[in-house]
Specification:
- Helices cover 41% and strands 19% of the residues.
- It is of the alpha/beta class.
- The chain has 2 domains: 141 residues, 3-Layer(aba) Sandwich (Rossmann fold), CATH 3.40.50; 176 residues, Argininosuccinate synthetase, chain A, domain 2.
- A 5-stranded parallel β-sheet has the order 3-2-1-4-5, with helices on both faces. Strands 10-9-8-13-14 form a 5-stranded antiparallel β-sheet, covered by helices on one side.
- Helix 1 packs across helix 6.
- 36% of the residues are buried.
- The mean pLDDT is 93.
């Protein structure tokens, strides 16, 4: 029996895997509605045609599959990296930044096909349900949202498989057993969570890592590359201009080969609990170091420090799912303004998991050898001026010390 007789058509974020295939059939049987599937290629490295075939087999008439790799990097990843965003000082937000794009496309498809609801496969314990739904409501406030994991009684993998078998949904042999951990991947990163990773004291097994070789087995010789930036965005590697997605793909290759970008993190989820995740962001780790390298010679001190002050708030907004919020858009405008002169080239050394900036140059450089040299600066900087500068800055400290001394005498 349908939960909501008013729902006639729903757009499902569909991967073709066991969970979303069960969701597809569950929507048909529970809501009695037409299901439209949307599958996004964000560079997860999986063949998408099987998802189309499985959707067709389950009776879906409107199937949308889109290659979003360039849009993902150009309009979501690069703007985020302009902010040097790190959640809780470490996480490069690979899953967080993908959700608003998927949800945005779902809403666009819903409007195109006249659907009155959208559906995602995120669980009721995680962050993704929030990220999807905040985006849905920000873009289409009257949309109906179906979140099966908060509604159904299929609360275990055994129950999911039983439902699939009951409704003749094909299950790959390697999906019948209990998965050792869950994986989410896109062009920016891979994320592994759950099962064998739930104990934060136990080191992650090497089988968890898919995007990088172990730093211990990386080459004994360093790899040196040059990354070129224009207005804060990377545009070329070693002199070769590349599209955003192609550039990140190339950085991923360098990162993988040198064991770069692994992170074992216990983080604070938006919903309140702590979780342990193992992340691999090879290209993103290189990109962040390179971006900070070019900023170091092109950004004014005040602008750089203000960006650093705002970065945790910006990262938190993305992690929580507020990409399409006035606060994030306001911060983005400020960040983008600060990067107007962040153009130039950074030289990076990659070695056994380490990323080191070893050179930087820019036509807009604020670095003045004339002022910082230990040799004769020929009058460029009068060192005697520092005395007055220090005394003015020390005034409040001296006044406080005088007050303390007076209090001590009275006591």
């Amino acid at each position: 029996m349908a939960r909501d007789a008013k729902i006639k058509k729903v757009v499902l974020a569909y991967s073709g895997g066991l969970d979303t295939s069960v969701i597809l059939k569950w929507l048909q049987t529970t809501y009695g509605c037409e299901v439209v599937t949307f599958t996004a290629d964000l560079g997860q490295g999986e063949e998408l045609e099987p998802a189309r075939k499985k959707a067709q087999m389950l009776g879906v008439k409107q199937i949308f599959i889109e290659d979003l790799r360039e849009e993902f990097v150009r309009d979501f990843v690069f703007p985020m990296f302009r902010a040097n965003a790190l959640y809780e000082g470490q996480y490069l937000l690979g899953t967080s930044i993908a959700r608003p794009l998927i949800a945005q496309k779902q809403i666009a498809i819903a409007e195109k096909v006249g659907a009155d609801a959208v559906c995602h496969g995120a669980t009721g314990k995680g962050n993704d349900q929030v990220r999807f739904e905040l985006t849905y409501y920000a873009l289409k406030p009257d949309i109906k949202v179906i979140a099966p994991w908060r509604e159904w009684d299929l609360t275990s993998r055994t129950r999911l498989i039983e439902f699939a078998e009951q409704h003749q949904i094909p299950i790959a042999k390697d999906k019948r057993g209990e998965a050792p951990f869950s994986v989410d991947a896109n062009l920016l990163h891979s994320s592994s969570e759950g099962k064998i990773l739930e104990d934060p004291w136990v080191e992650a097994d090497e089988i968890v890592y898919q995007r990088t070789i172990a730093p211990e087995t990386a080459p004994d010789k360093a790899t040196t590359i040059e990354v070129e930036f224009v207005r804060g965005d990377a545009v070329a590697i070693n002199g070769k201009t590349l599209s955003p997605a192609a550039l990140l793909t190339k950085l991923n290759e360098f990162g993988k080969a040198n064991g770069i970008g692994r992170l074992d993190l216990v983080e604070n989820r938006f919903v309140g609990m702590k979780s342990r995740g193992v992340y691999e962001t090879p290209g993103g780790t290189i990109l962040l170091a390179a971006h900070r390298g070019i900023e170091s010679i092109t950004l004014d001190r005040g602008a750089m420090h203000l960006k650093d002050d705002l970065m945790p708030r910006y990262a938190e907004l993305i992690y929580y799912g507020f990409w399409f919020s006035p606060a994030r858009e306001m911060l983005q405008a400020l960040i983008d303004k600060s990067l107007e002169n962040v153009t130039g080239t950074v030289r990076i050394k990659l070695y056994k998991g380490n990323v080191t900036v070893i050179g930087r140059k820019s036509p807009n450089s604020l670095y003045s050898l004339k002022h910082v040299t230990f040799e004769d600066d020929q009058g460029a900087y009068n060192q005697r001026d520092a005395a007055g500068f220090i005394k003015l800055n020390a005034l409040r400290l001296r006044l406080a010390a005088v007050a303390r001394q007076a209090k001590k005498k009275k006591g």
